[in-house]
Fold each of these.
Amino acid sequence: MLRMTACAGLMVVLAVSCGADDREMRPPSASQTTTTPTTAAAADTGGGVGTATELVMQLTSTGFGADQPIPEQYTCQGRDVSPPLEWANLPAGVTELAVAMVDRDAENFVHWLVTGIPPTVGGMAEGEVPAGAVEGPNSFGNDGWAGPCPPDGSGLHHYEFRLLALSEPPNLEADADATAAYEQLARLPAVATAILTGTVAAAS
């Protein structure tokens, strides 16, 4: 009988200690919390294949900066040669590169189409294309580079250089004109695309 009374008393003490007593609990210490891991940044800053963070393919020129005026030497008012281009961070699976340059303010008037560029090269020198590359037709009716030449009084024109990283040859139609060839190239499922835009102001 005495043993039962002692147990009953113990149960009352436990019930009181475990009940709500209007005191606020302290927040857990750092060692008591858990966190959900997030995607880690790439440890390989060299941009190698397989890093946790993918590097974006880039297209640049030493002749002009992004959204900056294209120097006269690359236009019909100057020497009319193609500007130097450089690219970096090509993705895996690229078998061929292509470059197109169009005037966005003239319904994508084609100034340059180049296909067959080996992915082993990192750019094109001024006025040159890599060995094995093929220059297609432009909207002036010739093959190769045709520099910016906006009509007088037409304002500021934006010229878009587009680099396409392709997983297979584009196989453009041999008799396609510049517009058809550009549209066919633009429809290809590129592994990656990089764009560099320059401007030329038309004479007033």
Amino acid sequence: MIELLQKYEYSLGELLLKPEIWNTLDVDYFPPRVERVWTQIDENHRLFIHVIHPTTEPCLFHKHRWPAAFKMVSGSYEMGIAYSEAEISSEEAYKLPTISKFIMSVGSYYEMTDTHTLHYVKPLDEPSISLMLTGPLYPEAFFRKEVLTKELQPLSDMRKNQILGYMSWLYKY
């Protein structure tokens, strides 16, 4: 997945010039707040830009509904990893042993390709910006739903354009 993410990074400049292909969500139902900007690449892949805001509260410890690769492009975050074959809540995940903890910084890549792996991310000092490429949904995706406590709203067009513009600046397009 990392190699595929790197491939799509090469075409990122072209994608950033087309704001109409990007969708947004303000993911603010559980810390940390994530400003999500994403586009469908092909039938099986989506490319996400995540602006993740710092918090002092425990962060969502969660599984993904798809395999994914990530690259940190600005800022940094602490990431904890755990494993459970059960479908569990964030609170229950914090009771599991943390397998590994990392500080992810600019230029770091990682992938999560096991359906039972959980992680949390907690930005350090400032918002972090990362790319995420997702693959086809796991079979578990149909019952592994996020427990939303409110309906998520899109970002404003102005905010979406600010994020796309900042990414263009970061990548020197």
